[in-house]
Amino acid sequence: MSSRFRHAALVGKYQAQGMRPLLEDIAHLLERRGVEVSIEAATAINTGITGYPVLSPDEVGASCDLAIVVGGDGTMLGIARHLARFGVPVIGVNQGRLGFITDIPVDQVQQVLRAMLAGDYEEEFRAMLEGEVVRGDERIYSGFAMNDVVVRSGANAMVELSVAVDGQFVANFRADGLILASPTGSTAYSLSAGGPLLHPGVAGLLLVPIAPHMLSNRPIVLPDSGEVSIKIVAGREPSVNFDMQSLASLLHGDTIRLRRSAHRVRFLHPRGWNYYATLRRKLHWNEGAVHEGPSGG
Q1: Which domains, ranges and CATH numbers included, belong to the chain?
Q2: Could you count the other beta carbons within 10 Å of the beta carbon of residue 165?
Q3: What's the pTM value of the predicted model, to 2 decimals?
């Protein structure tokens, strides 16, 4: 059977037990389908896999037309955020616990991947955030986030943040922190902080205070067409976190400017995948229910 893909990179959560043989099994499957295989550099170094070209994330983006990510959502976040600007599609194999965006179970990987390599898949694009931290007239940090950007203070102290959208003042939030989440991030930290679920097809962003000191400070859904500005007014040891990338040395007066990125993450899912089924499965909705839907189908 001919493949629709020519060159695939393998990325793995190399701390996970049994990762090397699983990655090698996938590599052999790809080779049998006529797909050239490379290993992402950190994955190769930490698993000890040899016999394949080793590529940096930038080299994966420049030379591969597919990335297969084995692990949990954290593993996916790191590489997908990087590959978005190259337009390289990603497939997620879930070896984590929850896995909202790594959706192929390990025990089905051979069967599902064979079908997907032949072109039997669903394609989906997800929005990302991008932004920078500005101190005076100087940009001291810039980054991307697929899930969220979180601003908070250290030592579990309160932080006061001034928020504006497209230059229009919204409010000063006194809270343990503040989350700006993408629709993908609505099932991450934002959800545990009381934010709503936001379908990835909605062109919106979530602004969610963490343990606000005023109960009237509620989560708000914002359009993703403008810029959100978060200025640090007060707080001990304030920090900002772009997904897994943290900047801890913020000062009062620093401003975090955020917007929807021009780049989107391109996901490939198994045929039949849909967002609502993922929510039912991962959030254990309708446990004990007899029927899947109104018609029982």
Answers
A1: 7-119 (3.40.50.10330), 128-262 (2.60.200.30)
A2: 16
A3: 0.91
